[in-house]
Design brief:
By secondary structure, the protein is mainly β. It is built from two helices and ten strands, in the order E-E-E-E-E-E-H-E-E-E-H-E. A hairpin with an 8-residue loop joins strand 7 and strand 8. Pfam families: KWL1.
């Protein structure tokens, strides 16, 4: 659903008429709610639109066998060493697997480290289901998550104890 914003005011005699036009921002509203371990979490089938630099929350994921990610990865049915530069994208950005195997460039603001790194999309950070054995009981991801390996965090010069860092990303190809 397109959001509306005030763009133009038109004076007519002594009254002002406000013309509302659609903005370029497209809302990605929750598609439902999932109760996980006694807490309610929004579910998303969409993500914010991908732009030239898309804002995201970088989170830390363990892509190795026995790691917090649960089962083998969606894109290649394998596990990955956490030193590899790999990521999972929120359901909407994962786009049914259309970004599998493709590279994205993740950038951190200059106020943090100013670094960028290219990483391969290997999985979906499920924004709908989760809270099951396949996902190690974790709640659904937000709709704007790039879930990166320790290798990604290290390449960006980030402290993994932060848990979540604001980043931007673009498709590398």
């Amino acid at each position: 659903m397109a959001s509306l914003k005030l763009l133009v005011s038109l004076p007519i005699i002594s009254n002002i008429i406000y013309l509302l036009l659609p903005s370029t921002t497209i809302a990605c509203d929750p598609s439902g709610t999932l109760v996980c371990n006694g807490r309610s979490y929004p579910q998303f089938t969409c993500s914010p639109p991908v732009a030239s630099y898309t804002s995201a929350n970088l989170t830390l994921n363990d892509f190795s066998q026995g790691g917090e990610g649960g089962d083998r990865l969606e894109c290649d049915n394998q596990f990955h060493d956490n030193n590899e530069l790999v990521v999972a994208l929120s359901t909407g950005w994962y786009d049914g697997g259309s970004r599998c195997g493709r590279m994205i460039v993740i950038s951190v603001s200059s106020a943090t480290t100013g670094r960028s790194v290219a990483a391969k999309v290997v999985d979906e950070c499920d924004s709908v289901k989760r809270c099951d054995s396949e996902h190690a009981g974790l709640p659904p991801c937000g709709n704007n998550v790039v879930d990166g390996s320790a290798g990604v965090w290290n390449a960006l010069g980030l402290n993994k104890d932060l848990g979540v860092v604001d980043v931007s990303w673009i498709m590398a190809e």
